[in-house]
Design a protein that fits this description.
This protein has eight helices and 25 strands. With 383 residues, it is of the alpha+beta class. β23 and β24 form a beta hairpin.
């Protein structure tokens, strides 16, 4: 048995919102006791009060989560300034939480701490990891590298980085009944878990492949031995680098790519700064898209996950989409979830959020990558 429920409230008062969410969940649980959960919440709520209320009802739950730039669920679809909670009940699946602190000082050690804490409570080897880590104090790529070192590169990792409604001041992460910053919370799943996923952005590469020849983490100085700004000028003319024109970055020996969105540039150095690190000598191409293609990506991501699901029917679905997608889509953002909900004959519990960076393998056989401007679908079920 794998029973999953979702609650969602857009009440602006923290106490009323969490009470509504818990009432929805308890009705659907029908007296089942959840062993784990994940909470997504807008930045202005009283997060400690919300967590304490959840623990009054479910004192043994293993819970993670964090703040967002928008929330998604099968209850209220796309919302801002809301909270949504997904709870997991399972007989033959183990789900355990861990957290690593001070990620900005040492993301590798913090990731190891989180994984070891969760693994210490499990009797089985993990098969999948969910995470909702810090995004502003350290590199998301470094956090992911730490998680892959601690888990092994063959264990898939899914999730999104915590956000703060594009203020870029401070994000919060949740672990059990506590609120953290600068941390890495994780949920490890083991046992008879089934899952599948899809990754799509809507952008497609144009032009010839080029090589990053000088870079410092997320600042690209040269592409093909010339200033990175010259690379952008070749395609955009007088237009400035912006999130509408990301780079498609190709892992070594792969035809698939992940996205890197520019956030600024320096005219004096000719450099372009991106939301996340880009490897030295990586092959890149300019990427373009229109609004329709960006919207269509949510359905493409969902259908990839559905068509590759290894069981009969998934029990629930999680979504991780990018704040840049929300900003570009504007009022059309609600269509991202709507594009997915009619793909199944029967509705299933769904939950998700808009993040400062997405985490998922490009394909089932690939190791996990860090993404920008991407829509990730994760389907869950049991054998």
């Amino acid at each position: 048995m794998f029973h999953i429920v979702v609650g969602h409230s857009n009440d602006p008062k923290s106490e009323l919102a969490v009470e509504e969410v818990l009432q929805q969940c308890q009705t659907d649980l029908a007296e089942k006791i959840p062993q784990a959960g994940i909470l997504f919440a807008a930045i202005d709520f009283d997060h400690l009060l919300i967590l304490q209320k959840i623990y009054e009802i479910f004192p043994a739950i293993e819970l993670i989560g964090g703040t967002t730039d928008g929330e998604i669920s099968s209850v209220l679809e796309f919302q801002q300034d809301s909270i949504t909670l997904m709870l997991f009940c399972a007989d033959d699946i183990e789900i355990h939480a861990g957290i690593g602190c001070k990620a900005s000082q040492d993301p590798i050690t913090a990731a190891k701490q989180a994984i070891e804490q969760a693994k210490a409570k499990s009797t089985l080897e993990p098969q999948m990891c969910l995470t909702h880590p810090e995004s502003l104090t350290t590199s998301g790529v470094s956090i992911l590298e730490g998680l892959k070192l601690a888990l092994g590169k063959n264990i898939p990792i899914f999730g999104g980085l915590a956000a703060d409604q594009s203020r870029y001041e401070n994000t919060y992460q949740f672990f059990n009944n506590q609120v953290f910053s600068d941390s890495i919370p994780v949920l490890l799943f083991s046992g008879n878990i089934l899952f599948s996923h899809g990754v799509a952005s809507g952008w497609h590469p144009i032009g010839n492949a080029s090589q990053v020849t000088k870079v410092e983490k997320n600042i690209v100085y040269e592409i093909d031995g010339k200033p990175a700004l010259d690379f952008y000028s070749h395609f955009l003319g007088t237009l400035e680098p912006s999130m509408e024109y990301p780079l498609a970055v190709f892992p070594q020996n792969s035809e698939n790519f992940y996205m890197r969105a520019p956030i600024g540039y320096n005219q004096d150095t000719g450099s372009v700064t991106f939301f996340a690190d880009i490897p030295h000598q990586a092959m890149v191409q300019m990427a373009v898209a229109n609004g329709d293609a960006i919207l269509a990506a949510s359905k493409a991501s969902f259908m990839t996950a559905l068509n590759s699901y290894p069981g009969v029917e998934p029990s629930a679905v999680l979504f991780f989409s990018c704040v840049a997608r929300r900003q570009l889509l504007g009022t059309k953002t609600l269509q991202e979830y709507q594009n997915t909900k009619d793909c199944l004959p029967n509705p299933i519990p769904a939950c998700g959020f808009y993040s400062n960076g997405e985490i998922a393998p490009l394909n089932t056989a690939d190791e996990t990558e860090f993404h920008n401007e991407t829509f990730v679908t994760l389907m869950l079920g049991t054998k």
